[in-house]
Every structure is written in structure tokens, then in C-alpha cells.
Automatic annotation (TrEMBL):
It comes from the Bacteria. Pfam families: EF-hand_5. The keyword Metal-binding does not apply. InterPro entries: EF-hand-dom_pair, EF_hand_dom. This is EF-hand domain-containing protein. Residues 23-58 form the EF-hand domain. The keyword Amino-acid biosynthesis does not apply. Keywords: Signal. It comes from Nitratireductor thuwali. Residues 1-21 form the signal peptide. SUPFAM superfamilies: EF-hand (SSF47473).
């Protein structure tokens, strides 16, 4: 599930559709290039956090500080949304969203060095 949430977030940010996100859970070089703001050939945990913080803001269409299933319907399945909504209240707070995507980052960081390459 985590990789699917990561892929859906990547799809959101790179313009890919949800179907593509569910079929391609791994990050590819083109994705890494979008996250790699210092052009060092990798994505640091901080670069990823900054990018995903911006993503949350873009998803939060009404600006209320939480995501609803409606706001994320184009990029997340109900199951993916439930994975983000840790407390099950039907809304995903910024902290819940960032906690999940940073867990996804950690899972993708196979070298354990805080960088995706």
C-alpha cells in the first residue's frame, strides 16, 4: 500500500494518471529529476519533504488545512486515502499526509542514507 501511495503522489505531481501510478510504484529517473532541486543526481529527504508539502497545498483545494477524499479522488483510491487518514476521521491532515509520504520515502530509500538515487 505504501508504494502505491508514493506512486499516486508522484503521479499527481508529474501529471501522470492514477492508473499509471498504480502500475508503476517505483520512482523513475524523470521523477527524481523533478524532486532534485539542487541537481546532485539524487533526492534528499528534505527535497522530498519540501516537494510533498507543496503537493499537500495543491491538493487542498478549499484551503482548509485537511484533505478530503473528494479533493484526492483523482489521484488516490479510497484505500490509498484510508492509508493516509491515520486516525480514520475522514480527513487527512497535513501531518498525516507528510507522515505517510515520508514513510514511503524511507521505504524507497533502499540504501538507508536519506537519499533516493
Amino acid at each position: 500500500m505504501r508504494k502505491t501511495v508514493l506512486a499516486a503522489a508522484i503521479a499527481l505531481l508529474t501529471g501522470a494518471g492514477l492508473a499509471a501510478a498504480q502500475q508503476a510504484p517505483a520512482m523513475h529517473e524523470a521523477h527524481l529529476n523533478q524532486f532534485d532541486t539542487n541537481n546532485d543526481g539524487g533526492v534528499s529527504k528534505e527535497e522530498y519533504r519540501v516537494f510533498m508539502t507543496g503537493s499537500f497545498a495543491r491538493l487542498d483545494g478549499n484551503g482548509d488545512g485537511v484533505l478530503s477524499q473528494t479533493e484526492t479522488a483523482e489521484v488516490l483510491t479510497p484505500q490509498q486515502f484510508a492509508a493516509i487518514d491515520a486516525n480514520g476521521d475522514g480527513h487527512a491532515s497535513r501531518d498525516e499526509f507528510l507522515d505517510q509520504v515520508m514513510r514511503d520515502f524511507a521505504a524507497a530509500d533502499r540504501g538507508g542514507d536519506g537519499h533516493l538515487k
